Amino acid sequence: MSGIRLENVFKAYGDATVVRDLSLTIPQGEFFTLLGPSGSGKTTTLSIIAGFTMADRGRVFINGRDATRAEPRERGLGMVFQNYAIFPHLNVFENVAFPLTVKKVPKVEIAKRVADALEMVKLTGFERRYARQLSGGQQQRVALARAIVAHPPIVLMDEPLGALDKNLRYHMQMEIKEISTRLGMTVVYVTHDQEEALTMSDRIAIMNGGVIAQMGPPREVYERPQSAFVAKFLGEADLIRVERQSGCLVGPGSLPVRAGEDNGSLQKGQLFLRPEKVTLCDPGTGEAGCTLRGKVHQVAFLGNVIRFEVELEDGTIILSDVANAAGIKNFPVGAAVDVTWLPEHARLLED
Amino acid sequence: MPLGPLAKWLLLAPAVALLLVLFLTPVGWFISASLMELGSWQDIWDEVAAVMGTGVIVRSIINTNGISLAVTLLTLVIGYPVAYAMTRARGLTFTLILVCVVLPYFTSTIVRTYAWMVILGRNGIINQLLLGMGLVDEPLQLMYNRLGVLIGMTYVLLPYMVLTLFATMKSVDGRLLQAAAGMGARPMTIFTRVFFPLTFHGVMAGSLIVYILAMGFFITPALMGGPDDLMMAMLIEREVELSHNWPVAAIMTIILLVITLSLYAVYTRFSDSSEERLA
Amino acid sequence: MMAGSFLRAALLRSVVFVICATMLAPILIVMIVSFSGDGYLKFPPQTFSDQWYLRFLTNARWVGSLWNSLLIALMSCVVATAMGFLAAYAMVRGAFSMRKAVMALLLMPLIVPHVVTAIAIYFMSARFNLIGFKPWIALAHAVVALPVVLIILQSALKAVDPNLERAAMIFGCGRAGVFRRVILPLVTPSVVSALLFSFLISFDELVISLFLAGIRSETLPVRIWNSLMLEVEPTIAAVSTLLIAATCLALVIEWGMRRYQEHRFGAKA
Fold first, then answer.
1. What is the pTM of this model?
2. What is the ipTM of this complex?
3. Closest by alpha carbon to A200, among A182, A187, A185, A183?
């Protein structure tokens, strides 16, 4: 049994509970992301897995062994730190060799494995440089090479790309993903960047207030959020107040609304839609039962997408993203429109 | 990686033990044992009253504070322009000023005092010069009086003032001064209305540290002062070494400690990172 | 207006020049006088010689005091730096509710007049027959050196990113390994500074030595003091020049060490 298992892990600092009875299982080879706003407990969770922080209660299993009380060095993990934590007194070679040097691996073996790791992160030829002589991206690669050089089955990554600019970040996301897949590593990745989490992960745990708000594959958590928090945290979300009147759900203006999975139990709540699933059409042409009325409040040109802000009768603002493709229909500000969607794209969320 | 509570105290233990054994215990023991020699509380109180009524002791307290105040003002007046020049200087000029401040700072107090004795002595350099030029007929008394004490102590304490002021001045945002100049303020106005107020806490911190250190001075006044320049530290030493009058030494010590420690409490208010400044 | 600011700048420059010259002058004068070939103090010396150095080096009491000072300073700086390092590490990485109180205690010897410290230790030492015992004097010097060591090392350790320590731990180091492989290399220049400055503090210390040295362990500053009580003789200039040279050497080593470290990996520890 490999991978990671947390059982009812609890951590508090004084009165502040940071992680609240958290349980999760990460199977071997999975790219698992802890996503959440700052203070959500994701970094503490990672720190508990690494062994830098001891949980107050609960147990930590790493590769099937109870590692709750183990020293960090006994856990056999690799790690990439925020701001890289490259040893400034060691050059690139010595930095990458560090995990092997400490374990007293023979010199020849070290040289070979460091060369392999550096090749993997495309840093061959930089062996003699020091951290200050490297760009942010290069430092990131050194940190990555150091984390994988000893072939740890599990690698932890704490916001490793936070300090990089946007283009480089996307590039590194792809590289990290590729390397982790190639080496079959389990990766526990902490980030507050939802796009990054969606791009890279096999599974995402969205944390909030020390608990996991929702856990699942990127597509599932994005399209089928179980709470307004998750819906909003994973990108733009349209949330429409709805309630049940004589068996039927109605939205603003007492217009009936439909959602894919409606078992009839929800009395009052919110209808969730992603802006790209919302279409606009001329008044009266929207599909019956999935249409609300409003007027265009604002139009934003985002390049690949045109974003319409529509104000519904009760003042709710609904976003509708329309791909900037040939033949799109333009609605000027102030125009009356119907907001419509397919029932299977809508979800009901309890309050 | 935070340290556990045990590890933390274990690491602190040697240093704390050193201070306990060679600082707190001796100071506490010396004071309490010396006072106890006197007998009851009433006797102690009588002795305190007697000490406070002794002319020599009262004069030494006045002298100490007077000299400390004068030295503080002197170091401030002399040190301020130097610190200011340091913040403006670059490259070699800066290094040269720094050397002129730091080299004396790290040179032994006794060596620095000796140097001034060579200069100010009856047969010292200044008197040789003055006599040689025929400006005076007989050597001037530049030492073994208040003048000597002030010159010597100011010299020894000046680096503390300069370095404290420099630390403050360096942190003044130059853009504020540019903004003031841009709004048409005259250089003098910029100095009195912007720069000086911004460096005021440095002035206070520097003055307090110099005053505190001057209060406990012993070597320089002992070597360069005259009979009228008896300071508290010297008196305490004299009570112990010559008169073996431990109770009086203890009472004087308490007075000296109360003054310096309360000034230190004020000092910590004027410098957020007092630790760093002292370095 | 322009002329005014030019004049002001010129005035400031000359004032600062005079002050700086005055700061340096006594030290230079002592050094020059120490090479005097004259029989008594005269400036500038009419002739030059190494007579005062010879007199110093051939006098058993002077040389003995030099050895005493070196021995005591050596012990003292090692003790102060070691203890200060541990304490600084605890202060930087430990979570303290009473950090301020602990720090105030540790810095106290800097504020309390040395005469008080000296007399208090003397009072106790006399009872345990420790007067003149060199390790004891070294420990007493360590008390006054400790705050300085602590300040230097604390700021150095604060500059070490805690993630570097975490990285070392996750990659296989225990506490000792983290210390040896990461912390120590990063703060070496500061440790050297701490050693040098605590050495200087002990080497130059007079007041405590005055009380604790006894006859057995007269240190160089005490010897100077005793000698100054009699007359201002040029032998002292030679001794002083040696002390100044030691200070300069320490400062140059310290500066060079820092430059090297910065040059090597750009860290300002």
1. 0.84
2. 0.88
3. A187
